[in-house]
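Lab channel / #folding
Pinned by the channel admin:
"Please post every new chain as: sequence first, then the structure tokens as a reply. Keep commentary short and put observations after the output so the thread stays searchable."

First post following the new format, from NK:
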Amino acid sequence: MSDPMSQLVRKNVRDLTPYQSARRLGGCGDVWLNANEYPTPVNFSLTQQTLNRYPECQPREVISRYAQYAGLTPDNVLVSRGADEAIELLIRAYCEPGQDTVLYCPPTYGMYSVSAETYGVQTKTQRLTEAWQLDVPAILQQLDSVKIVYICSPNNPTGHLLKAEDIHQVLTATAGKALVVVDEAYIEFCPQASVVGWMQQFPHLVVLRTLSKAFALAGLRCGFTLAQPGVIQTLLKVIAPYPLSTPVADIASQALSDEGLNAMRARVAELNAIRDTFIPRLAELPCVEQAFFSDTNYFLIRFHDSPAIFKGLWDQGIILRDQTKNPLLGGCLRVSIGTEAEMESLYQALTQFGPKGARQ
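Reply from TO:
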């Protein structure tokens, strides 16, 4: 049935293809390895009971604890409904529709383009190299009219870090001209690679973080923007009045306590160990062309017949994320790190497939 109000919708939204999140794609399974979540729930108890009052716009304890964790001061931190909201806030605050553009480097996270298109802001793309690294010379040739450059490192969905010297070159070239937003949603799995320490040298550097991955709080929807105070104050002009509910702020504060940080680091060590055990095992299977190294809680596998593998696993209740339509990722499925038992189930299921994807 056609929508009688469709003619009232902005054209760019009417023509928009929404981001296909793992939950939107659905599926019915027992082993969910498609959304880069922590595989088991973490228990928290609510301590704040003032639900009759509006929450603080920027809960002080959450901001203070995250600033301490990140090695910054509270005026360098903004908290939002996941890092996804921060992606949109930056576009709303800094990009003039029909005038400015956003640049990103596929294959990468899909919300950079969706958020820009939602607000009528044009996009430019520069593919990663065959080695899945930034093509810096090509990026530098495209910076005219670019107001924001989004760089995801470690990159989703490839699972690896982008070279620090390449990010440094982009920052140098954009000084005074554009923001460079480095999305560090997965940085807890390789914390030594964070670029937060560059913020004084590059005041146009913005870093995005989240509690969804290593903190095991994907359902909380809590993210952070780390930037110079002027950028934070600008974003506060456009953020919703009460972006975090009281229960979200309560749990986020607990997750950022000393006890919470220790638990997060233990989870990271656990997932990294499982990842480093299973990647080489999976690489030896007949149906696998290549299993790629990863710096994150997920990795890519290139299969000889990925459609057959994806459907065969789906039918057995093992849900992966299909990446075959992304540039440079033909034949690739993304695997989120699950429990040892879940990863063993995946391994055993894949032993059933031969090089051409057929069951053996």
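NK: The first strand starts at residue 31 and ends at 32.
TO: also worth noting, The chain has a mean pLDDT of 94.
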